Amino acid sequence: MPNKKELPKNPSFELQRDLLIHPESNPTAYVAFEQALAHKFVPDATTWSRVNAWWLADASWIAYTHDAAAVRDVFRSRAGMDSCELIAGTGTECYLAQRSSFAIVTFRGTQPDDWNDLFNIARFGTTAWDVGRVHEGFADALEAIWEPLEKALNGLQDRRVWFTGHSLGGALATFAAFRRRNRLAGVYTFGSPRVGNGEFAAQLDAALVNKSFRYVNDHDAVTHMPPKPFAFPHGGYTHISELRSINKDGQVSTTEPTVSHFALDVFGDPGVGVLLDIINLLHQGHRITLPDTLTDHTPLYYALHTWNDFAVNGA
After folding, report:
1. Helix (H) or strand (E) holding 128
2. Is residue 237 one of the residues assigned to a domain?
3. N or C: which end of the chain has fewer CB within 10 A?
4. How far apart are CA 281 and CA 80, in angstroms?
5. Are 63 and 87 in contact (CB under 8 A)?
6. pLDDT of residue 267
C-alpha cells in the first residue's frame, strides 16, 4: 500500500498565504502525479474512484502552474499521457491531456483577480443558461474558451473524457461536463462554488448519475458561495449532489459537516465582504491570521487529502 503524505505542520503566515493565493509558486515542492505510473487512472470507472479522485485533484492543482511547458512535461513524464495542450480564452484556461484510452480536461482555478467574483455580492447575479439559471460571471468564463475546447473534444470521439478543476475551475468543469454529458466519463470538482439554481442542479444530477463528485474540505467557505438567496427571484443557488466531505482529520465521507461553516452563519450578513477584505489584505502583503474558512480552500490540501484517502482505503 502507498504511504500517506503529511500536510504542512504549523505553517508560517507566508506559507499559508502562498498555498492559498499563489499555489503556482509551489512553496512545499509538492510533486504532482508522484507514483502515478504505479497507481494508474481507471478510465472505465462507472462509480466513485479514490485513485481517480487523487489523479484529478493533482490535475486541478497543477493547472495553476504558469509554465505551460512544465505542465505538459508533468502530464507526459509522470502521468504517462501522450500529449497535453493548453487551451486559452480571455481570462480562462484549461489543459487537455490525452492518451489512447482517455483524456483529462482540467480548468485553471481562481486567479488573484477572480476572488472578487467569488466573494463580491454585486457579482452574484444569474443568467439563463442551457438549463436553469447560473452565475453570470462563471458562464461568461466558460464561453471564453468553449469554442476551441469543443473543437478539440470533438476530435476525441474514441476516448473517455474526464473533467476537473479546483475553485472557479470546478465551476467551469461542472458546466463543461453538462454540455458533454452524452460523451462524459466523469467530473470531479474540488472546492467548487455553487454555480446555478435548483433547476440547473436537478437537471445536472439527473444527467450525471454516478459520474459527478464534489469534494469539500471541511470549513471551505468558497463552497458556500454564492449564498443561496442570491439567485432570487429564480430560486436559490444550489449545489449539485454526490458530496464527498473531508473532515478535520482528513477522513472522506458523504456526510455533511455537523456544524455549519457558512460565512454568513459565522459573521452575519457582512461575512462575505469580510472574507473578501481578508483576501485583499493578503494581496497587499499584510500579515493577518487566516481563518480556517479560507485555509481549507487551499488546492494542495485537496490533493493531499485525496491521496491519503486512496493510500488508506485503496482505489
Report:
1. strand 126-128
2. yes
3. N
4. 40
5. no
6. 42
Residue 259 is predicted with a pLDDT of: 55
Give just the sign of the alpha carbon dihedral 192, 193, 196, 202.
positive
Give domain status of residue 1, yes or no: no
Give me the residue label for grid cell 487537455.
Answer: 96
Task: State residue 273's pLDDT score.
Answer: 76
Residue 128 lies in a domain: yes
pLDDT score at 114: 83
Residues shown for the chain: 315
Task: Compute how many other C-beta atoms are within 10 angstroms of the C-beta atom of residue 13.
Answer: 13
- If one counts the domains in the chain, the total is 1
pLDDT at 227: 87
pLDDT of residue 268: 44
| pLDDT value for 258 | 59
CA dist 142 and 102 (Å) reads 22
Range of the domain at 297: 13-313
CATH number of the structural domain spanning residue 42: 3.40.50.1820
Task: Please state, in angstroms and rounded to a whole number, the distance separating the CA atoms of residues 172 and 163.
Answer: 9
What distance in Å separates the CA atoms of residue 207 and residue 186, rounded to the nearest whole number? 11
Give counts: helices (H), strands (E), the chain: 11, 12
**Model's pTM, two decimal places?**
0.95
- A 10 A CB-CB count for 297 gives 27
In this structure, the number of other CB atoms found within 10 A of the CB of residue 6 comes to: 8
Q: For the chain, which ranges sit under pLDDT 50? A: 264, 266-270
